[in-house]
């Protein structure tokens, strides 16, 4: 019992520190729209690095990466591969998005799409899909925080209270300080995660096997199938490869990632961030060690849920003191909260600017928009919290579905950035066909060749765009007409 | 920036991507030789993350120089 009290005490101190940093980050800019949403478009390299890191590095990575290594073995490198490849998209798209945003005042994806294709409904649609994807994603972070609290404190802090505590802190500093609060807390939580992950990842194999090399040597004797593809669960190269591609290159369509391009102080900064980004992905290496360490430990009694392997290893197997368990809980909460802050912030911005802006809040003042965004942060966090309490399984379906649709915006966004000749009708038709195909493959049929459905859908999408572009007559729309010359 | 620069950068990205999925990762799909105590396939991913970083770093320096200017 007293052990749990120590764990709770350490974690509460950590939460208080995050709250303090987040609230202190509030500055005069936090009250302007550009300041609240995009940090006044002058966020520098270091903060940007940790924001973009935290966004991708969620509770899923912290608990899921060891879970994959434990359950599948080598297919867990999927997470390593896609996180390291994300910076390619940042490098290629980021500077252009930042420049257009600065010139034309964009703050969201919907802004850019609606303006470039001269279609307000298209911007609203992008906004609705964005919110539909972001809220379940936020719910998963909140539920993750609740589960972590409950497990690490042996139930002293129940699920509902743990989830509430973590997300009251997040909602408070996002409400007050906007992107500036997110930036400074992401810096702090990123450092926390890296330190905890390496400490645990090296200590656990040391205690149980006498070192990382020794651990893999024993695995090679007892369970070599985990150490190469297709792993212990027979994952095909086709699925592995296409899943890496969809996650790595489709990921930039997530509004919370995409919108951060607008907040960069320069395209050069975005490139510098992408250069160092693969180093952030190294954080997964020690987490994978923990998963591999679990394979032999739980060989006789496999865990019911693979993503609890980190918790079980730290709490039951490695015999750590409550101080370490408290730090582990803080590090894992950092992963959930730093991503959750970005999700709540982005969902609120998208809801107010893309969905309410052209409809119920037409012609609202900047002050009213900032205020509506702030309250939406609280409202959406509350909705996500309630979802987490009810915990409907359909939420994962909603997340999968909405994310699949987000990826289908890819040709539309690329068109707006690099190919002004692409016509509205073509990209809309492509996105429509791609979306329908994705939903059918994900939820009705199975995907051909066992590939990730997102890859087929985007190929179909591109094909439709190309065909439509070739055969349809150029209509009189958009700035693209001037640049046509055939 | 000229065409060669973009071609080389694109090539670097393509090679790093293909090294981490099919077919690139096929050639590394083995346990021996272990490097730094890691099975070879694990080491392969760590290696290519480093290659990606170094290549992008070079591309960055070529484009923007070392200092803070346009």
Key attributes of the depicted protein:
heterodimer; A: 486 residues; mainly alpha; Sodium/glucose cotransporter; 2 domains; 21 helices; globular; B: 70 residues; 61% helix; 0% strand; elongated; DUF3311 domain-containing protein (chain B)
Count the DSSP helices of chain B. Answer: 2
CATH architecture of the largest domain in chain A: Up-down Bundle
Alpha-beta content class of chain A: mainly alpha
Largest interface: A-B, 40 and 32 residues
| DSSP E strands of chain B, number | 0
* CATH top level assignment of the largest domain in chain A: Mainly Alpha
- Helix share bin of chain B: 55-70%
Distance between the termini of chain B: 12 Å
Helix content of chain A: over 70%
Total number of helical segments of chain A?
A: 21
- Uncertain regions of chain A: pLDDT < 50 for 5+ in a row? 478-486
C-alpha end-to-end distance of chain A: 78 Å
Averaged pLDDT of chain A: 90
Largest sheet of chain B: none
CATH topology category name of the largest domain in chain A:
Sodium/glucose cotransporter
Mean pLDDT, all residues of chain B: 91
Rg from alpha-carbon coordinates of chain B: 15 Å
From the structure provided, what is the oligomeric state, counting identical versus distinct chains? Answer: heterodimer
């Amino acid at each position: 019992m007293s052990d749990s009290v120590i764990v709770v005490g350490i974690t509460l101190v950590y939460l208080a520190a995050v709250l303090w940093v987040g609230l202190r980050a509030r500055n005069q800019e936090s009250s302007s729209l550009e300041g609240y949403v995009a940090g006044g478009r002058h966020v520098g390299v270091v903060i940007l690095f940790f924001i973009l890191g935290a966004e991708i590095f969620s509770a899923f990575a912290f608990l899921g990466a060891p879970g994959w290594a434990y359950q599948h073995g080598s297919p867990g490198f999927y997470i390593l591969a896609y996180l390291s490849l994300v910076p390619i998209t940042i490098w290629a798209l980021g500077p252009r998005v930042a420049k257009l945003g600065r010139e034309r005042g964009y703050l969201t994806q919907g802004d850019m799409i609606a303006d470039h294709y001269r279609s307000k409904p298209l911007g609203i649609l992008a906004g609705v899909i964005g919110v539909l994807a972001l809220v379940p994603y936020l719910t998963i972070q909140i539920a993750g925080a609740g589960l972590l609290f409950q497990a690490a404190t042996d139930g002293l802090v129940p699920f509902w209270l743990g989830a509430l505590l973590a997300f009251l802190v997040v909602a408070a500093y996002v409400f007050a300080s906007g992107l500036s609060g997110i930036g400074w807390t992401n810096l702090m939580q990123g450092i926390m995660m890296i330190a905890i992950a390496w400490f645990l990842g090296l200590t656990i194999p040391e205690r149980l096997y006498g070192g990382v090399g020794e651990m893999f040597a024993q695995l090679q004797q007892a369970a070599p199938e985990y150490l190469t593809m297709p792993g212990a669960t027979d994952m095909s190269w086709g699925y592995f490869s296409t899943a890496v591609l969809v996650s790595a290159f489709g990921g930039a369509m997530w509004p919370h990632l995409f919108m951060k391009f607008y907040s960069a102080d320069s395209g050069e900064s975005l490139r510098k961030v992408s250069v160092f980004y693969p180093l952030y992905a190294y954080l997964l290496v020690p987490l994978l060690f923990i998963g591999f360490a679990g394979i032999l430990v739980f060989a006789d009694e496999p865990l019911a849920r693979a993503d609890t392997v980190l918790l079980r290893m730290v709490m039951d197997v490695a015999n750590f003191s409550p101080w370490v368990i408290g730090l582990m809980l803080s590090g894992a909460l950092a992963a959930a909260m730093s991503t959750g802050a970005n999700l709540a912030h982005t969902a609120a911005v998208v809801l107010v600017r893309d969905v309410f802006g052209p409809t119920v809040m037409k012609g609202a003042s900047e002050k009213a928009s900032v205020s509506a965004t702030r309250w939406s942060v609280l409202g959406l966090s509350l909705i996500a919290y309630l979802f987490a309490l009810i915990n409907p399984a359909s939420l994962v379906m909603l997340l999968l579905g909405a994310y699949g649709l987000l990826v289908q915006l890819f040709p539309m966004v690329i068109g707006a950035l690099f190919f002004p000749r692409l016509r509205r009708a073509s990209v809309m038709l492509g996105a429509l066909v791609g979306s329908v195909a994705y939903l059918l493959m994900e939820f009705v049929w199975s995907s051909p060749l066992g590939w990730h459905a997102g890859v087929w859908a985007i190929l179909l999408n591109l094909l439709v765009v190309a065909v439509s572009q070739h055969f349809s007559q150029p209509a009189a729309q958009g700035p693209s007409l001037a640049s046509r010359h055939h | 920036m000229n065409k060669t620069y973009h071609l080389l950068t694109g090539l670097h990205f393509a090679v790093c991507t293909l090294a981490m999925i099919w077919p690139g990762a096929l050639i590394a799909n083995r346990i021996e030789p272990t490097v730094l105590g890691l099975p070879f396939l694990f080491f392969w991913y760590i290696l290519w993350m480093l290659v990606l970083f170094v290549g992008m770093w070079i591309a960055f320096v070529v484009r923007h120089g070392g200092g803070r200017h346009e």
